[in-house]
Amino acid sequence: MAGEALTSAEYIKHHLQNLTFGQHPDGTWGIAHGAEEAKEMGFWALHLDTLGFSIGLGVLFLFIFHRVAKNATAGIPGGLQNFAEWIVEFIEDSVKGSFSGRNPLVAPLAFTIFIWIFLMNFMDLIAIDFLPLLATQIGIPYLKVVPTTDPNATFGMALGVFLLILYYSFKIKGPGGFFAELAFQPFGKVGMPVNLLLEGVNLIAKPISLALRLFGNMYAGEMIFILIALMYSGGLVLGSFGGLLQIGWAIFHILIITLQAFIFMTLTIVYLDMAHQEHH
Question: Is 60 exceeded by the pLDDT of residue 68?
Fold first, then answer.
């Protein structure tokens, strides 16, 4: 696919284009067949590939762990149960080490975030042309298979966490306590304008940092895979070198996809812990 009909620039643009569904300028609804058509659809257009893969992987995650829980045994556990128990213990240790409050929602939330993001990141290890090529065979013009390379997905998750931060900040501290934290920390009443500016920026930076960190790392990783794939059209020697690079980058990328899921989960726990703390 890298060298059959597309130039290098066209190949890169093709792999970075989402399967977008929305309203065309003439009022009809359909799938965009290019970046310009997708842009014309505006804010309310849907990225079908991002939605499909993220929801599908979420359902897969729920199915696997539901099956493990249903078939769990107190005797000698199987390999999948061992793995699930190890993941649960790992998440519990992370929550205990970063969350000082008492909230039964935090551990399940952290567990869901870690596994779901890991599965979405893991899609980056599938051969870059495999699924998009299959999609073109059935008439689907574009297909991005890694949901976390779409900022809409990462910002959606980050905003979900941000709403929880606001909810528990109001619930634990009350509206007055939450405002006092923004207005009077750390410089007291005299420094209220500075306090509001600093704490306001700090509050807004939380979802932005969550979203951009995950998106940036995964987008960069996917771009490297795309650039390596271009080497396959450069002849036997360059293609062989590209194959070695791809294997090396894929092995290293296993660490990246795991680390990014862990960082998103850990920051979520820390931010929720901050939302549960009261300043007197």
Answer: yes
